[in-house]
Structures are given as C-alpha cells and as structure tokens.
Q: What sequence folds into this?
C-alpha cells in the first residue's frame, strides 16, 4: 500500500521500480491505453497528467492517451469500449452501473466527500439545515440533488421543501448575486475559487446530517477489459497511483505539469495551486494514514445503499431497482499492487 508519509522509502521504491520498468520497456513496444475524463481537466485529474508527463506510464510500458473531454460521459465511453479507463464521478458511476453499464471501480481518486451545500456567509437567517425550508435552490437538475437536500433538511427536523431553479454552473453566479439562496458545490474547486475571489461562504457537510460519506470520484474500467488485460490494468493503475502520490508530495511541480498540459483551458494557475492544496490538506487525495487510491468497501456499501433506498438506482427501463445490488462486485482493489 502506497503511503506518502514515508517519503524516503517511497522515493527509494520508485527509483528501483523505475530502473526495472525502464529496462523492461526497452525490451518490448509500449501498450496503447486510452483514458476518458469526467469533465474538463482539473485537479481531480492531476495524477493522470503527472504519470504521463513525468514518464511513469512509459516506465510501465504504457502509451497513455488522455482523451479530450466531450459530451459523452466517461462511463459510456468505457462501457462501449471507446475508452479503456476513465475518471467517473460517483453518482454517474452508480446510476450507470445500476442501469446495466459494464463498469467496475478500480481506484478511489477522492477519499472523502468533496461536495457541500453552500450559502453566502452573511445569511444570518440560515443557521442549520431546517432553515432552508421554503428557500430557493440553484441546481443542476438531478434526482440526487432533491434527495440529498431533502434528507439534510428533514434530518434536522424540517419538512424538506424548497424551490428549485435549474441553472447548471450559472448557479454559482446566482448565489454570489443573491438570486438564489443556496446551491451545491465541490469545495476543492468552486469553494476554493470563492475563497480566492473573497466571496465568504458558509456550508453544511452532508455527512454531518445523515448522508453517508463517499468516494466522490473513481477511476473505472469495464469488467470485459479487466478480464482480457489484467496485467495492463495493473500497470496502468499502479503508475496512476504513483502520479497521485507524487502530486501529494510535490504540489508545486504537479500543478505546473497539469497547467502546462492544458494551457488553453487552465488559465488560472493560482486556482490550480490552491485547489491542489485543498485536496492535499483536507486529506481528499490521501487518507490520514497516507494511503492513496484504496477503495473503502464500507463507503461503497453505505452510499450505494442510500441511493438504492432513495430510488435513485434505476434499471435500463428507468424503473427503480427492486433488489439491493451486491455492491462488493462493483469495485476492486486488486489492481493496486498491495500484495
């Protein structure tokens, strides 16, 4: 298990692995691998770019192509065999898997929930979740949002009623201007951006109000690909893990790698540095014990059960699943190389 709190041991091990991998890669051609993103490049993807541009993939005998982000979800690209691997948000992963997509989570990019419910800091009328009853939510149009927010409010003794304006990413501007009362954001991106722009916010964490904590982002593949190419999958996951471990230990260099690889899209290096710092300081990329990448079975079971009970997990016909899935088959840690 990679632990980034023992830096000397890690670097020694990486050096030995590098020497072996370099020799091996010189003896055979690189294996082509494709990986899809769940959004435009951001700090959640930093390990991929570090592993590619620092040569970790090449040392593992891989030629990795990070596909440009498009309108088709990473889960769809994986299950349809367009991409071998992909970054998948947890909600998209669970809903697509429930509907029959050939997906399997094989690496936890984010160790704990990065999302939160936010409102402007000067709102003295919002002190606890039940104060949100009857207010206006700027949202994104998913069943998950209604379930999540209603749960927070009801668990605090409220009715769980609120008005929704579906605004997409314009919700953040609407919140700043006061056009809506609250929204949901990813702290390590939108939240950090608000801090940099001096827009004070307060927030409710989901897990403080009865919603299970979760890995908000996975690296996933298809069961078909994993069965056909187990060695390639191990090489890819372990090199990717090196990339994320490097980013935790070397924030400035990793941020430069990400920005340099996406200069046309990432035009605010200060945001990238601050976002990565938040991911590291908050133990989002690495747990308190220093582990990176390992999927926690209890978290998968808890959030999966929550989504099932809420009727969010639906089959290919759009009907809520009648039987609770066996979530142990939805993920695997076997490709991490922990022995």
A:
């Amino acid at each position: 298990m990679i632990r980034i709190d023992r830096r000397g041991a890690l670097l020694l091990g990486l050096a030995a692995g590098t020497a072996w991998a370099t020799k091996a890669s010189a003896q055979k051609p690189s294996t082509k691998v494709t990986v899809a993103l769940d959004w435009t490049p951001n700090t959640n993807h930093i390990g991929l770019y570090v592993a590619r541009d620092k040569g970790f993939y090449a040392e593992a005998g891989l030629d990795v192509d990070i596909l440009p982000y498009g309108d088709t979800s990473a889960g769809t690209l994986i299950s349809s065999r367009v991409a071998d691997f992909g970054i998948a948000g947890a909600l998209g992963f669970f809903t697509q898997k429930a509907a029959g997509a050939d997906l399997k989570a094989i690496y936890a990019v984010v160790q704990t929930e990065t999302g939160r419910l936010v409102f402007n800091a000067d709102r003295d009328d919002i002190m606890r979740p039940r104060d949100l009853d009857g207010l206006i939510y700027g949202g994104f149009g998913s069943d998950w949002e209604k379930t999540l927010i209603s749960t927070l409010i009801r668990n605090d003794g409220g009715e769980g009623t609120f008005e929704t304006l579906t605004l997409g990413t314009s919700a953040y501007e609407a919140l700043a201007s006061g056009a809506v009362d609250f929204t949901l954001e990813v702290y390590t991106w939108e939240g950090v951006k608000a801090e940099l722009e001096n827009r004070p916010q307060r927030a409710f964490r989901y897990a403080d109000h009865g919603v299970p904590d979760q890995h908000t982002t996975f690296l996933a593949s298809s069961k078909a690909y994993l069965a056909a190419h187990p060695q390639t999958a191990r090489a890819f996951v372990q090199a990717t893990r090196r990339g994320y471990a490097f980013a935790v230990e070397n924030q400035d260099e990793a941020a430069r790698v990400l920005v340099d690889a996406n200069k046309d899209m990432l035009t605010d290096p200060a945001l990238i540095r601050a976002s990565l710092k938040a991911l590291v300081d908050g133990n989002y990329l690495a747990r308190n014990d220093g582990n990176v990448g390992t999927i926690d079975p209890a978290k998968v079971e808890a959030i999966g059960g929550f989504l099932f009970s809420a009727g969010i997990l639906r089959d290919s016909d759009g009907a809520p699943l009648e039987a609770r899935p066996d979530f142990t088959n939805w993920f695997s840690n076997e490709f991490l190389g922990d022995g």
